[in-house]
Design brief:
Blueprint: H1 4-12, H2 14-24, H3 29-34, E1 49-57, E2 67-76, E3 79-89, H4 98-104, H5 108-112, H6 117-128, E4 132-135, H7 138-153, E5 161-163, H8 164-174, H9 186-192, H10 203-219, H11 229-232
Parallel strand pairs: 1-4, 4-5
Antiparallel strand pairs: 1-2, 2-3
Length: about 230
């Protein structure tokens, strides 16, 4: 018998939302993405299929700025599948500014040789189908991906996400002590778990770095084998 709590979660959760969105989604990449069922909310994290994703962008504001590159890698049963690694620069029409180029190291020439936004987003949607999206600082990935979908398809689905920054923030908030927000940076959290330095501000490198951080976070949780998806979703 399904408990009242479980029934409410099922009716209002991301799987129910996926079905409602599928019914009104335009044909093509979006409907293909939404056609694949999502894992149950009580799925063990260590049995989950996850896609660790990172974006480089021309700026921080999804309305005015654009996606510049996408990187991702799959995690299956708490193992990073490097053979699934993907990285692609996007040929956006947005001009690059010198201060951003210093950070992401993508030049105008590299951008001009990139692939169209629609092609790259379609690859991402295919890889995401049936998986949970893992990010560090979800606001960027959520806003830019939904904006790109609106631009390409006139429709922006929901993307269930796990955010390594929010996992760390919840742990710090439980201590009820003041902390420096810089402690939530990807590099700082990796250092906390004795993970090696990585070359940041490269979409694929950051996606892999986020995947490694997530695995370390889960492994350090009490009763890590019993942690369920619903406990970590945004």
């Amino acid at each position: 018998m399904i408990s009242d709590h479980s029934l409410i979660a099922w009716l209002t959760g991301f799987e129910a939302k996926r079905k409602r969105q599928l019914a009104i989604a335009p044909k093509g990449a979006i409907s293909d993405f939404l056609s694949v069922s999502l894992p149950a909310h009580n799925t063990s994290i260590k049995q989950l299929s996850i896609l660790s994703v990172d974006f480089e962008t021309t700026g921080l504001h999804a309305v005015n700025d654009k996606l510049l590159s996408i990187g991702f890698v799959e995690i299956n049963h708490q193992q990073i599948q490097l053979k699934t690694s993907y990285h692609q620069i996007i040929n956006t029409k947005k001009d690059l500014h010198a201060d951003n180029v210093i950070i992401h190291q993508i030049t105008d020439q590299q951008k001009a040789q990139g692939k169209p936004l629609e092609e790259v987003v379609e690859v991402l949607l295919k890889a995401l189908a049936g998986k949970i999206m893992l990010v560090h600082f979800a606001r960027i990935e959520k806003q830019f991906l939904q904006r790109a979908c609106l631009e390409l398809y006139g429709f922006a689905p929901s993307f269930p996400m796990i955010d390594t920054l929010m996992i760390a923030k919840r742990q710090l908030d439980k201590r009820d002590l003041a902390y420096d927000p810089s402690a939530l940076r990807l590099s700082a959290l990796r250092h906390k778990y004795s993970l090696p330095e990585h070359h940041g501000h490269d979409a694929l490198n950051d996606a892999i770095a986020t995947a490694e951080l997530f695995m370390a976070q889960v492994n350090h949780m009490p009763n890590s084998n019993k942690v369920q998806l619903r406990e970590l979703l945004l």
